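Human:
Focus on the backbone:
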Amino acid sequence: MEKTETKGFEISKEETGLSEEEIKELIEGAIKGKEKAYAPYSNFHVGACILTETGEKFSGCNVESASYGLTICAERTAVFKAVSEGFTKFKAISVISDADSFTFPCGACRQVLVEFGDFVVLVLKSDKSVFFTTTYKLLPFHFGPSDLLK
């Protein structure tokens, strides 16, 4: 399957349950995060913004290391910031890069996102066009907390 083949993975804007204001704030928060990215090696700047169920927003950026394996993605930065402040229930996350195409979360980020349930994901192009999906659509047949409770 090519990266551009998204049939069955996209949801409509209406299905997200997000208000226009929430969508706007998620986009702005991801852009704000991207502006703070530390990417001296790849020069690939990524930002994310996560919205808690109670309305708090946390932005994150990718932070690279000369030891590439220690690099952290923007999505995980945003999630970990929220969790470190006591939030574990999320409504949506947005992610943007400088790319002209949609930059979807990597596998590690998808696994971290599904740890906190099924919620909306806004994947943005640099021109701010939005692809709406959910964490479970990004990682079907995932391993999660319920697998450890059996």
About this structure: DSSP finds five helices and five strands in the chain. The beta strands are 46-52, 57-61, 90-97, 120-124, 130-134. Residues 114 and 147 are 12 Å apart (CA to CA).
